[in-house]
Amino acid sequence: MDGPLEKIERGPEPAKLSLSVNGATLVAEVEPRASLLDTLRETLDLTGTKKGCNQGACGACTVWVDGRRVVSCLTLAVACEGREVTTIEGLVEHPMQEAFLSCDALQCGYCTPGQIMSAVKLLEEGHAGNDAEIAEWMSGNLCRCAAYPHIRQAIREVRDGEHQ
Amino acid sequence: MTTTLIGQPVTRVDGHAKVTGAAKYTAEISLPGMRHAVIAGSEIPAGRITGIDKSRAMAEPGVLAVLTHEDLPKVATQPVLTLSLAGTVAHGQSFFPMQDPVIHYAGQPVAIVVGETLDAATRGAELLDVTYERTESITVIDEGRDRSYVPEKILAGLAPGEMGRGDVAAGLAAAELTVEATFTFSANHQNPLEMSASVASWDDGQLTLWDATHGPTATQMTVASLLGIPASRIRVITRFVGGSFGAKAMIWAHPTLAAMTAQIMHRPIKLALTREQMFTGCGLREDNEQTITLGAAADGRLTAIRHEKLSITSAYDDWAEPALSGSGELYACDNFAAVYHLIKGNTMTPTFMRGPGETAGLAVLECAMDELAERAGLDPVELRVRNHADVDPVSGRPWSSKGLKECYERGAELIGWGDRDPRPGMRRDGDWLIGMGMATAIYPVYPLMNPQRARARLYADGTAVIQTAASDIGTGAATVLTQIAAEGLGLPLEMVRVEYGDTSLPFLAASVGSTGSTAGGNAVHLAATGLREQLVAQAVQDEGSPLHGADPELVDVVDGVMVGPSGSESYGEMLGRNFVPETEYLGTYQHRVDDEHALLNFGAQFAEVAVDAALGVVRVRRMAGVFAPGRVLNQKTARSQLMGGMIWGLSQALLEASHMDPRFGRWANPSLGDYLVPVNADVPEVMVETVEVDDPFINPLGIKGIGEIGMVGMAGAIANAVYNATGRRVRSFPITIESLL
């Protein structure tokens, strides 16, 4: 995350925090140690962002902060004040969602929001030139159901404009 | 019937909720006044607790309570290991924690910390001071090798510890070729991406429990028996489940612990396991050693198979993954013997993990068959065809259906088996050695032990609801049940909605052992077709209906319109005219014991690998699997599930290993960073096909199941491909870089 941060002394007790999530300003009362992931899920009831390991290893909690993909389990909520957070709930009828559905790029669906948040950014980052590149740049998102070939197919189809 | 919805590649009915983030999994349920509970697990593998000092934990702001074995109520019934397949209670082990200070395994729950927030409870659990008296432990095979025994029964008493037929010694004496080899397998943990969780809420003596499980009915009955309250006072809700692969197939302690905690705290309680606790909270696939001996005539025909397995079980259960039965079922061979050897150790009772038994047992059999093919100078496919079991070698009965030879043929075509050089180490692509291997897949067709039920309801507006207590753990159950219901009722898909994952709905056993579609599918089929017949019978008797007097046999239903020889009307018109707002039918599927046929699921697996000649890195380049799983209910979701299974086979072959540190008796790598599972870049394109075999004997819909068969055999195919590439027979799974250097 780039840009200056306003220095505010708070904590360790819960403190009011103002977050911009999916274009709305939300106020949460959380401890400064609370992760962005737990704040989204437990305080703001935005449960589309998933917890798969809480250690930054699985990618299920991928969200965007100021337009860049991050793992929200290793991001402090308090560090996101003044930044724009986008979660899966902020995507509305995005072609990637349609492609995941039609390609059956999911089974249990638990990794799916994180996969989609990564996949959309992957295209913007220009890392979807071929399958090997897609596979490499999507390897931060585990899918235990192993829908990987279908995830690549969905990303290819969106890249090629098949889902408008 | 004119519609053919069954089999169509229908998009998942629950898919939209999953791609938008609207799908709520268990740990995402929040209730007013709810508090968080976190389990603290034992740091030692054996011994007893000598003291628990709660003071530091209780001093942490937001911590509300610390509960230990001195605070928790005693369970009403001592649990006895019972398979969820039985459709009753489903205790994962014959032990319930936090009843006394005795420690049987590391990670065993010793305290529950309740907090205002998840962070407070988590921090409280870290601050808990537990002192222990540690005693000697056995956590790896080498520590207990001299104490092994042969159990009378395994699998909760459902399978014998020893089995066989004929005379293996005579079969080996008569053999012109023999293969004998010992294989080792690392322990594996299922690690679904969603961690297990339960949310418990009491209201006037009634318990509502949200639980991530294969079977809400299994949770209901298990928790009822432990709490000592009637099942009628527990409602279990399981809407979305983020995978399981066996982790959620049996009912472990946490839902009951959540219910007990909620009772003590007079508050709704959410209890979610951490990723690390997924290694000590819901069983495992035990590490094991297997020795196989094959005897064969010079032409490759098998004269004897002996297969033994050694593994660690818990102090209180005789658990062994049923890895050996497949070796007696797959090939025509008169002489077969198998023996399970167990060591009592400091582990929780091992449990199901995808393809339980067959995945490990067939890896061994199929690697040995590859060696035999080489000794006999035969193509590996030809060796298997020569030993093809035309009838069941166990019972002598004909198969209800098979299709295996077609699977071999098509799989060989897909992978280009003809390009394989039988001499190892001959094909090269730059620095990479290229090899191909294959293996057979089989998986049992387990009988369902109790009646499976579903209700179909039609409203006067012409829409229908189908209700059954099924759980969709990512299999696509909700989707195929919708298809089956729509086809049975003669309605378009969009007019049928399925309600599932709730014990308020008609009974269905836990979806385990590839029985989910058989149980739910047949119950829904009988409910839907039963309701259709009821509606048609009503129409032909209704003087106001254009179908009055028609022969019901001649009435078809198309898009909700009953079409008779001389007239037609919709379901809705008939119900509306008679002022009937809705009507229902309860379908009951009871598995019929077939004394004349043998039931088994078949497939063939092929893999091409590249092995870096200098570095030993193995990359799977192509995989092809062809399966004959009876009727395929949805080509799209079935393909996904079979493909997922095949990639699980890749993972078993090359990646997955839980490492025990015997000094501490604890897992050394309990995280998704250190327990390797495939990432996108590990997985090649996967070719999956099915051979549709008509099976009129197995169940009304002809279903054999697809959850496990896709995985079975793939590890063997990959190991055989590694041999073909390198000339190295690696006999430990996973096959790692160091084993090829």
From TrEMBL, chain A:
Keyword terms of this UniProt record: 2Fe-2S, Iron, Iron-sulfur, Metal-binding, Oxidoreductase
Domain 2Fe-2S ferredoxin-type residues, every copy: 15-91
UniProt cross-references to SUPFAM superfamilies, sorted A to Z: 2Fe-2S ferredoxin-like, CO dehydrogenase ISP C-domain like
Coiled coil residues, start to end: none
Source lineage: Bacteria, Bacillati, Actinomycetota, Actinomycetes, Streptosporangiales
Pfam families in the cross-refs: Fer2 (PF00111), Fer2_2 (PF01799)
Name of the protein described by the UniProt record: Xanthine dehydrogenase YagT iron-sulfur-binding subunit
Keyword Repressor: no
Gene3D superfamilies: 3.10.20.30, [2Fe-2S]-binding domain
PROSITE patterns: 2FE2S_FER_1, 2FE2S_FER_2
GO molecular-function terms, A-Z: 2 iron, 2 sulfur cluster binding; metal ion binding; oxidoreductase activity, acting on the aldehyde or oxo group of donors
Family annotation (PANTHER family): OXIDOREDUCTASE WITH IRON-SULFUR SUBUNIT (PTHR45331:SF2), OXIDOREDUCTASE, IRON-SULPHUR BINDING SUBUNIT-RELATED-RELATED (PTHR45331)
Pathway as given in its UniProt record: Alkaloid degradation; nicotine degradation
Protein's UniProt keywords contain Nuclease: no
InterPro entries in alphabetical order: 2Fe-2S-bd, 2Fe-2S-bd_dom_sf, 2Fe-2S_ferredoxin-like_sf, 2Fe-2S_ferredoxin-type, 2Fe2S_fd_BS, Aldehyde_Oxdr_Iron-Sulfur, Beta-grasp_dom_sf
Automatic annotation (TrEMBL), chain B:
Residue ranges annotated for the Aldehyde oxidase/xanthine dehydrogenase a/b hammerhead domain, each copy included: 20-136
Keywords: Molybdenum, Oxidoreductase
E.C. number(s) listed in UniProt: 1.17.1.4
Residues passing through the membrane, by range: none
GO molecular function: iron ion binding; xanthine dehydrogenase activity
InterPro entries noted in UniProt: Ald_Oxase/Xan_DH_a/b, Ald_Oxase/Xan_DH_a/b_sf, Ald_Oxase/xanthine_DH-like, AldOxase/xan_DH_MoCoBD1, AldOxase/xan_DH_MoCoBD2, AldOxase/xan_DH_Mopterin-bd_sf
Domain of life: Bacteria
Protein name: Xanthine dehydrogenase YagR molybdenum-binding subunit
Organism for this UniProt entry: Nonomuraea endophytica
Classification lineage: Bacteria, Bacillati, Actinomycetota, Actinomycetes, Streptosporangiales
